[in-house]
Amino acid sequence: MHDVGQPPLLLHELLSPEPFGTPKSRQAELEKTHTLTLYYLAQTYPKLGDNEKSASYCHLTLSRQLQSGHFQPVDWATNCATLSQYYVTRDNFTQGRHCLASASCVMSQVPEPLDEAEDGENESARERLERRRADIARCWMKYCLVLLQESRQALMDDIGELDRTKQKDLAEGGAVASSNGSHNDDKQDKPEDPEKSAGADGPCRHHGDEKSLLRFESLELTALEDQVTDRKVTDFDQARTVFLIGQKYVNAAKEFYVLDGHVTDFVEITQDWSQLFRALSFFEADFERRCKMHKRRVDMLQSLLSELNPQHYLLVCRQIMYETAEAFSEMLDLKVAIAEAADERPTVHAVKKINTLAQQSIGHYQMFLDSLRNADKEMPKTFSEDTLRPALVANFCMGRLYSKFLSSDPQLKLQNMSKSLDHYQFVVDYCIAHPDITELVKSELEICTEMSQLLPIQMEKIRLTLS
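^ thats the sequence. predicted structure below, dont judge the formating
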């Protein structure tokens, strides 16, 4: 008869006349089974819509694996880096950074596969290791990108520029949080041990706060965590530091994910790199330097587009066309702002630059719209769900861009105003024909409706001056 309080018998011992396992082996097997149960719970809770509890069970599983030593380092690091993305999307950058630092720490301890061996298995192991390192680099890159984007969102005013009041409030709040909320603060309450805090309903958070830090205490992570902040940035110098770390991991990821053989991954990395520049530009006060950042975006996106076959990568090409058009449009707005701030008539060079940027933005929006045409080269009467809003917004933007052209020729002005009216009217007519989609483009539709009424009046005034 088995003693009460002792580890349970192994499964195959139950089928044997005499138990042969030791208490140590039975306890070890019980711990493994418990860890596996936690892993299955982590997989189950997302199906129930409880991602927070799933993340807690993921952390608890990883923590138990780390404590026991029974894990594959490459898989553990990959899973930990993947877990970081959940915390980053929940605005919990402290926990996200900790998971990424833990992943990098464990991955750094993985030995290189033997170079002497030439068999397929070792080559596959080497490639797998390089892929996982690149995946972790991409997670770091995403961390930096989301941190910059969330910082920008927190500081943005109604017209998309830096709000000085918000900047001051966030800087003061960040200082308070940094002195009272960082994991290095002695005054901060330490989170409960994940194993001790696990109850009947799963892991409990410290004081019920999702942002309470669950740490892998056995890992030394100071250097890895200190390379990048876990607080929202408030000025260009802070943003640039985060940007440079993100760019470092962009380059690390691109060492494995090259265009030849990894097209989709390479495109996604390049798009994230472009968005890093865009997020950084928000913090730059000098408009000329902002333009140069957007020019970097345009160069990398156009270079990428020239390498892709639209027949094979149509969806990806559409994304790049659209983002390139947006980048040109942002450069245009900056050039217009520079010209208006000069308190004098724009130079011939400035006018040419503004008109060129407007035409390039329109050209890429038109490329996007042309990609939506059917086999007969006709625009569909009804756009699909995934292209509906982009198509209507593209027309809205083109209507706006045609009004940005600078010209002293009244006839040319009329031509541009007519084209602008056509695009505004397209959005209005489409929404009249499909009233159920108006909420998708509510703000754009209001402007299009107003401009479709205003432009004919303005055009008529110009015609009267010509007659």
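The mean pLDDT is 84.
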